[in-house]
Every structure is written in C-alpha cells, then in structure tokens.
Specification:
By secondary structure, this protein is mostly helical. Helices cover 44% and strands 10% of the residues. The protein is built from 4 helices and 2 strands, in the order H-H-H-E-E-H. The chain has helices spanning 2-7, 21-33, 38-43, 63-72; strands spanning 50-53, 56-59. A two-stranded antiparallel sheet has the order 1-2. It is globular.
C-alpha cells in the first residue's frame, strides 16, 4: 500500500505497528472496537493493511483496492 500511495503522490504517515508495543496497542484498540473490523476479528485476522482517512479506517485488500480507495476517497484532489 505504501508503494501505491507514494506512486500516486498521496501524502501519508506510515505507522509500523510491529515497531513498537504502543503502536500495536493503539491499533488493536481500534481494531477491537470499530465495526469495519468485525469480519477480521471473527476470522482471527489482524486487519492490516488499513488506511485511516480522517480517523476512519478503511481495510485495504491489495494494490488495486488501494488505488480504488484513493479515487473513492478523493485523496488525489488534496495533492497539489
């Protein structure tokens, strides 16, 4: 997903949840409380990668889906 965002010149902050226990805890709290992650929880999956836009999580299912989300969420409109 990072590659797609970079190629499209979308500004983003990458957070490696495996890089620190604090980041992992923050993500798991979101994952355990947001309805969008319900299927992930039921399947015992983590729910990564996830794209957060305006504090709303969007699960990403591959590069093509990342490109679709960029268009749907109008992330390119913010790039100058």
């Amino acid at each position: 997903m990072k590659e797609v965002l970079s190629q499209k010149n979308v500004k983003f902050a990458f957070v490696d949840v495996t890089g620190s226990i604090g980041n992992l805890r923050k993500f798991l709290k979101v994952r355990d409380t947001y309805p969008v992650f319900e299927a992930m929880r039921e399947q015992g999956r983590v729910g990564l990668p996830t794209l957060f836009v305006d504090d709303t999580p969007h699960l990403v299912d591959g590069p093509e889906h990342a490109e679709q989300l960029i268009e749907e969420l109008r992330l390119l409109d913010e790039v100058e």
